[in-house]
Design brief:
This protein is 25% helix and 32% strand. The protein is an alpha+beta fold and 170 residues long. The chain has one domain: Aminopeptidase (3-Layer(aba) Sandwich). It has a 7-stranded mixed beta sheet with strand order 1-2-3-4-5-7-6. Strand 4, helix 3 and strand 5 form a beta-alpha-beta unit. It is globular. The termini are far apart.
């Protein structure tokens, strides 16, 4: 599989939303119950230059994006990672290509800490993050309750992972 990673545009939104929904449907990717209603709502809080898509033969097969951790100036270099791979492309290196490119993009805009919240059951996501230098910094027990599907009402733990840049703030 030849994977090309590039900046995300508004034209990519239908594919991004579809892949996001596929992740939601697993029950192990997010507390979200559906993607935002529009590109504008989704994109409004993302870090410019840190929203990427992966394409295989021109088709979007995954996406990654950064959201600021906080609006406070002291945390300007800390961001939350999201990486989603379409169901048909999982296990083929798409997540790795996206996360590698996202790390480079984050450092180009001065991000020194990336963090990710991952359900313990999402073993593929944990492996991906560990392979790219993230480490476990804590367990947030019963952080939230699932709202839909067969897991509705279930309290979920979230593993807090962190990656410190070797370039920014070193």
């Amino acid at each position: 599989m030849l994977i090309l990673v590039s900046g995300m545009t508004e034209a990519d939104w239908p594919d991004v939303a579809r892949i996001y929904q596929e992740g939601i449907d697993t029950g192990h990717a997010t507390f979200a119950t559906q993607p935002p209603a529009s590109w504008e709502k989704w994109h409004q809080d993302k870090i410019e230059g840190c929203c990427l898509v992966a394409r295989e033969r021109g088709r979007v097969v995954g996406w990654a994006a950064l959201t600021p951790y906080s609006g406070r100036a002291v945390y300007a270099g800390v961001a939350e990672v999201s990486v989603y791979v379409g169901a048909a492309a999982r296990g083929q290196g798409v997540g790795s290509a996206l996360l590698e490119a996202l790390i480079a993009a984050s450092e180009s805009v001065g991000i020194w800490t990336l963090q990710a919240g991952v359900f313990p059951e999402n073993e593929a996501s944990l492996r991906l993050h560990y392979q790219h230098g993230f480490r476990l910094v804590g367990v947030r027990e019963k952080l939230g309750q699932m709202e839909r599907g067969t897991l509705a009402g279930l309290w979920r733990d979230v593993l807090l992972l962190e990656r410190r840049s070797r370039v920014i703030g070193a």
